[in-house]
């Protein structure tokens, strides 16, 4: 809910009409939930303008030898 509150605050401050949520890996579900909760419960006129998905190569963790691929998402929300 803190992410939802941050989006509501940003839109109500009037500084911009567009916000992009970015997430990687397991945080993708959180970003999608935040976008949907904000859109369906708090700011009804909010629109999802773009969704971009991709993959980034992350360096190996300590003790690993191979780099790993991690999924990414960017969700852009706009208010008319």
Labels describing this entry:
alpha+beta, single chain, 80 residues, three-stranded antiparallel beta sheet
Description:
There is one protein chain. Helix content is 34%, strand content 38%. With 80 residues, the protein is of the alpha+beta class. The model has no long low-confidence stretch (mean pLDDT 94).
Q: How is this structure best summarized?
A:
The chain is an alpha+beta fold and 80 residues long.
Which word captures the global form? elongated
Largest sheet: 3 strands, antiparallel
Q: Could you say which structural class the secondary elements and strand pairing correspond to?
A: alpha+beta
Query: So how many helices?
Result: 2
CATH A-level architecture = 2-Layer Sandwich
The CATH class designation is Alpha Beta
CATH superfamily: Alba-like domain
Strand order of the largest sheet: 1-3-2
**H/E topology pattern:** HEHEE
Number of domains: 1
Number of strands: 3
- Between the first and last Cα atoms, what is the distance in angstroms? 23 Å
Point out poorly predicted stretches.
none
CATH topology: Translation Initiation Factor IF3
Report mean pLDDT, rounded to a whole number. Answer: 94
Give the DSSP E fraction (strand runs of 2 or more residues): 35-45%
Helix fraction by DSSP (H/I, runs of at least 4): 25-40%
Radius of gyration: 15 Å
């Amino acid at each position: 809910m803190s992410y939802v509150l941050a989006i509501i605050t940003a839109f109500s401050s009037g500084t911009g009409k567009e916000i992009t949520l970015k997430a990687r890996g397991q945080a993708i579900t959180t970003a999608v939930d935040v976008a949907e909760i904000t859109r369906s419960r708090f700011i009804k006129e909010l629109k999802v303008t773009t969704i971009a998905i991709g993959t980034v190569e992350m360096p190996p963790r300590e003790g690993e030898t191979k780099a790993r691929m991690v999924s990414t998402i960017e969700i852009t929300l706009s208010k008319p």
